[in-house]
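pasting for ref
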Amino acid sequence: MSVSHSSRLNKLVREQYMRLPQDGKVQVTYVWIDGSGEGVRCKSRTLDKEPKSIEDVPEWNFDGSSTAQAEGSNSDMFLVPVCMFRDPFCLDPNKLVLCEVLKYNRKPAETNLRHTCKKVMDLVKDSHPWFGMEQEYTLLGINGHPYGWPDNGFPGPQGPYYCGVGADKVYGRDIVESHYKACLYAGVKICGTNAEWEFQVGPCEGIEMGDHLWMARFILHRVCEDFGVVATLDPKPMTGNWNGAGCHTNYSTEEMRREGGLKHIEAAIEKLSKRHDYHICVYDPRGGRDNSRRLTGHHETSNIFEFSAGVANRGASIRIPRQVGQDGCGYFEDRRPAANCDPYAVTEAIMRTTVLNETGVETKDYAGH
């Protein structure tokens, strides 16, 4: 198995230093989304005391020309702290802080999709939107070969791996469980995991969904770094007769969760059906090109060119869980978002269509609200 050189370093030696006291100081790691819209970056600074709220964490800056976010002649970008977590790597009292990125003129960077999402979520807050996102991913060796696959050839066909148990069915459970524990320690609202490389975050209300999923992704990449492997969110990392990787998004409003809420679920699905092209464009970072490799109508996916919905149908664009159909209220699942989607873009789009009643492919500017 191809693992990184750093993972082979003596971790016991590292622990000797990690146990040293900090003399009352605190390490704060600033985390942000880079110019790709998919990758995360981080850097750390020392604060004189433990921050008790996000307001206690000062703004910072970084070189945007090194992250595809600015030109070298005007490269300073601002890091604006928005959400704070405990640090599962350096432990208490140290912190992880998710940041928005602003350009030199204090306008949002192109990949700062949180900025508009927050505006939309503030507008629809009375509907109390809840989200839960199922993040699928693929583990690769440092050479890009899928972790656990034979060096030559392919593993056995799909079937035994889903929620599997056993050394011939599960690969990398140590990584899956380490990530789970790290998220729980950090305060990420992780609610479950599957050993075949998926975790779930939620329920989260409003902007919290994007904040917690992005931090869970950061923690996943850091855990994989320790183990010497790579986690990719590519929606179809291996061509052929293999499932792709999605980020199925479960969604409800307060009306949908109440008795008789099924009619509100059906109304929302009807709105989504009339705006399929718009959603496909925002459900991956490349305007639907990534998802076109995954949404083929095969391997538990819908066809990218067609909208469909059904009860308990994992081959549909929208799935209504069977229990929801029986109860007459609850939530529904949008199965179209790709694994590498931006959760801010996905949740914002759903609110624009189902609550703000936008139509067509253009979006409204709510700057004056």
